[in-house]
Amino acid sequence: MTASDILPAQEYLIHFAQIHECFRQPEINALAKRHSLPLVWKSYSNASPFAIITLPSDTDARTIISDSILAKAIYRLLAHSSDYDSLHALLRSRPELIPETIRKATFKFTIESYLHKRSKSSQRSVINGFAHLPLTGTVTLDKPEVKFTVFEEFPGSPGIYRQDGPTNPISVGLGVFLSHGSRSTIDTYDLKKRLYIGTTSMDAELSLVTCNLAMAGPGKILYDPFSGTGSFLVTASHFGAMTLGSDIDGRQIRGKKPGKNVIGNFKQYGITSRYLDGFTADLTNTPLRSTRFLDGIVSDPPYGVREGLKVLGHKDPAKNGSGEPVVVDGVVKFKEPDYIPPKRPYSFNAMLDDICRFAAAHLVDAGRLCFWVPATNEDGIEMQLPKHPALELIAVCPQQFNNWSRWLLVYERIPGELDSMQVPEKQAVPQRATASELNNFRKKYFEGFNQKPTSPSTE
Amino acid sequence: MKILTTNYLACAVKTCKSEPAAFPLHFKDAELAREELELNPEFIKNVLPRIDWPALAQTAAELGFTTLPSQKPENLDEQTMKDLHTLLMETQVMEGKLVCGNCGYEYNIKEGIANFLLPNHLV
């Protein structure tokens, strides 16, 4: 037994889902910050579903986990070690590790094994190994007061649970169940059950995680400048935020059939009172006045693979900004009821820069900007991480596909006014260029990445 | 379009950005609707410091709501909270126009959704 085997009572074990591993710590960190909790990580690995943290109390542990999408549950950790012999030795030598308050309670034992399958009899023998604990309550399988859980992790390949694999775990622990995370919310917001979706609607799990990273919560205002069918709006509002969305294509907000639109989705989930508004607008010509009123910005900007990224303006730069409206046969074209303003291709990197500038000018202190960008495998993300003196990069989370990836970038607004910061001049965007010249990702996408491409749409 | 939203909207034309007359936008031919929504006291409390009160008072007056106090309330008692909720969240403009006081550009509102896309001679 080593000193590190002796655990203070405020250690907690988070049981994570073994998915989107790079997002798990940032999600819990964001939830800790949202609830002002002094979280400390004691052990964490992307290769393990079990992580150990410290927090002041069981109540705080329940709070931090309640909105987590990537955590299955949280446990008060009583003891942990590298193998069962030393774990039992530790528990025998330090009976105070089992708090007095739970010794008389009704209880049951369960096992969470990672990368190992146990038969019923094998499970029973592991559980019987804990018979020496100073417990005087009765065993009750139906609604026990205390649920003891044995954690064991085995060496092996991720995701492959073997019955005939190594018999010795690499780590073991004993905890008391406190509370579940919010993984069932993924099913509630499943795109297959949603009334109104589009071809690029983000799946429920990553929409919810994105909104957690933006610290969406009660009392806040979140905005999506490329809201489309409103995936981020409903998931941010799920966590209690008031949401505002805009899109250059107003039909996306309005929908095609009655009820099948962004408001319809809010009605479906019973969160209508948290939908602030949707309006038709282009981020490069935003009607939102320059005031810092947003707590968060969440977005999956159009990659421009299908149609090319578009902003307002004629593709012939000579026809823009004249101040003189187009008049044909005495009719002022833009005043026609069915008038559709011309749109031109735009550079993806310029759009990322525009998003950062917009965020710097509209986020409150410590407000968050979370948005997704695509990358080819050869370039990686480092090539194009946007920078702004008022924005601190908090997390960079990749989602890998066959031959491309997309990355969630999380920034936090550094306190202070923009006047006091060295904001570089906006770089000129080439006016006459094709969609592919303006977007390296799109170009490589159509060049095929040399393999059969997976579709960058998320369905 | 909720009244709260209009407190954050100015004319989208770049040359109007620095013009005081471009905010707030003015409603024209506004068709109002009221939708009963759950009161969210935490939100009202948080959003109040971020409201431009003179602009809100002007928008409210133009729509015929003249009972708004001339100064931003310092204490949010229950009645003030309810009144603000009714004006900011429940009162919505379903059809009409938002007009810039500087350049005169008219933004259409249809089915509660305002359209801020500009023709190319203004971008």
**Average pLDDT taken over every residue of chain B:** 96
CATH topology of chain B: N-terminal domain of TfIIb
Order of helices and strands of chain B: HEHHHEEE
Rg of chain B computed from alpha carbons, rounded to a whole number of angstroms? 15 Å
Q: Can you name the CATH architecture of chain B? A: Single Sheet
CATH architecture of the largest domain in chain A: 3-Layer(aba) Sandwich
DSSP strand count of chain B: 4
Q: Please, how many helices of chain B? A: 4
Give the fraction of residues assigned to helices of chain A.
10-25%
CATH superfamily of the largest domain in chain A: Vaccinia Virus protein VP39
Q: What features would you describe in this structure?
A:
Chain B: It is found in: Cytoplasm; Nucleus. Chain B: InterPro entries: Trm112, Trm112-like. Chain B: One of its GO terms (molecular function) is methyltransferase activity. Chain B: This is Multifunctional methyltransferase subunit trm112. Chain B: Keywords: Cytoplasm, Methyltransferase, Nucleus, Transferase. Chain A: Residues 11-183 form the tRNA (guanine(10)-N(2))-methyltransferase TRMT11 N-terminal domain. The complex is a heterodimer of chains A (459) and B (123). With 459 residues, chain A is an alpha/beta fold. Chain A folds into two domains: 3-182, VC0802-like; 191-447, Rossmann fold (3-Layer(aba) Sandwich). Chain A is built from 13 helices and 18 strands. The longest helix of chain A has 15 residues, at 348-362. The radius of gyration of chain A is 26 Å and the shape is elongated. The two termini of chain A are 51 Å apart. Residues 1-7 and 452-459 of chain A have low confidence and may be disordered. With 123 residues, chain B is of the alpha+beta class. Chain B has one domain (3-114): N-terminal domain of TfIIb (Single Sheet), CATH 2.20.25. Helix content of chain B is 28%, strand content 20%. A four-stranded antiparallel sheet of chain B has the order 1-2-3-4. In chain B, strand 3 and strand 4 form a beta hairpin. Chain B is globular and about 50 Å long. The relative contact order of chain B is 0.27. The mean pLDDT of chain B is 96. At the A-B interface, strand 9, helix 9 and strand 10 of A face helix 2 and strand 4 of B.
